[in-house]
Specification:
Number of strands: 9
Distance between the termini: 29 Å
Oligomer: single chain
Radius of gyration: 17 Å
Helix content: 40-55%
Length: 256
């Protein structure tokens, strides 16, 4: 059982991509730590189920369905936080996509490349752009990068490009927002046990060998967990990281 400290009690957190994987784990951890939540995601059914679960545990939760690449979705998320709480204390830009799959760059259809960049870069920019007017001194933004923000795995040109751009966008936003006392950092996870990872393994011609290969990437010899990543996001979102901004924190078991 995760030990909690209530470090987000009284805070308002907006989390994108909250209906699975990292986002779902972050939502659960932030609720445990006392935050009021505005969750975003494309899967309305899963979002409603998570809202019901967390509400039943006593959390204050709202859910907004939509695609983060749409300006209107970003505006609706910010509006929900404004109308319900009047502010945003921490913004977690977690929604991500790897629709281009694992393929040589010249075989990737332009539409798939565009979709990855639209979600992983434009979605971050739009989300932050809409939220900033509701943020004040002491607020925080965490952008979900990847170990591929700094290293590249074969067959991941679109994804690696998008995550490198997300890291640089986080750094640029950190500089722009520093005079307002708003901190911005990126968390860059390695391979973790999530539905996305499990799905990729099961699609491989030799799932057992592929899983062993992925685990061997990390000197720790294992996958990370979504719960571990949620804890790292909590650190960057809270006052425990009060002198850190513009950073890209690697959470990849030493791979990079």
């Amino acid at each position: 059982m995760t030990k909690t400290s209530g470090v987000l009690r009284g805070k308002v957190a907006v989390i994108t991509g909250a209906t699975s994987g990292f986002g779902e784990a972050i939502a659960r951890r932030f609720a445990q730590e006392g935050a009021a939540l505005v969750l975003g995601g494309r899967d309305e059914q899963r979002g409603s189920a998570l809202l019901g679960e967390l509400s039943a545990q006593g959390a204050v939760v709202d859910f907004v369905s939509g695609d983060v690449g749409d300006e209107e979705t970003a505006e609706r998320l910010a509006a929900q936080a404004r109308d319900r709480h009047g502010r945003i204390d921490t913004l977690i830009l977690n929604a991500g996509s790897n629709e281009a799959g694992n393929a040589a760059f010249w075989t990737v259809p332009p539409a798939d490349f565009d979709r990855v960049l639209r979600t992983n870069v434009r979605g971050v920019w739009l989300g932050a752009r809409a939220a900033v007017p509701l943020m004040s001194h002491g607020s925080t933004i965490v952008v979900m990068g990847s170990q591929q923000s700094v290293i590249v795995c074969r067959g991941n040109a679109a994804y690696a490009t998008s995550k490198a751009a997300a890291l640089q966008l986080a750094r640029a936003m950190a500089l722009d927002l520093a005079p307002k006392g708003i901190r911005v950092n990126a968390l860059c996870p390695g391979v973790c046990e999530t539905p996305l990872t499990r799905n990729a393994i099961e699609r491989d011609a030799d799932p057992a060998a592929f899983e062993a290969e992925l685990q061997a990437l990390s000197p720790l010899g294992r996958f990370g967990t979504a719960e571990e990543i949620a804890g790292h996001v909590l650190f960057l979102a809270s006052e425990q990281s009060s002198f850190i901004t513009g950073a890209g924190l690697m959470a990849d078991g030493g791979t990079s």
